[in-house]
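Subject: Re: docking follow-up (zinc ion)

Dear J.,

Thanks for your patience while I sorted out the input files. As discussed at Tuesday's group meeting, I've set up the holo structure prediction with zinc ion included as the bound ligand rather than trying to dock it afterwards. The sequence and the ligand SMILES I used are pasted below, so you can double-check that they match what you have on your end before we go further.
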Amino acid sequence: MTPVPTTTQLLLCPVCSRAFKPSKNQNSNLRRHLKNVHNMSPTMHPRKCKWDSVPDGRIKDDKDRKERTRKSKRLSARKTRLRRKAEEAALGLCMLSQAV
Ligand SMILES: [Zn+2]
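The structure tokens for the complex came back this morning:
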């Protein structure tokens, strides 16, 4: 087995095409660059964070924050339920196809 070279995986800034050398935190480097230089919220983040679903970005006050936390908790609970269902369904299909 040959090790896969990681040097080819340069991250490019989608705005100014600036390349970011591979490193442990190249992702956060690019995200920080986007935020600081272009005043953009990160869109390259592969994993959806809970704020991605918040339509009007900024939290106004403490009450707002609590309200959002409650909402996102409810939302993620629903997502977890849905995912579990999907997993069970997938598992069932898998077992089914193995049985055939
Ligand atoms: Zn840039």
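A couple of observations from a first look. The helical segments are 26-38, 62-99. The chain has one domain: 11-99.

Let me know if you'd like me to rerun anything.

Best regards,
T.
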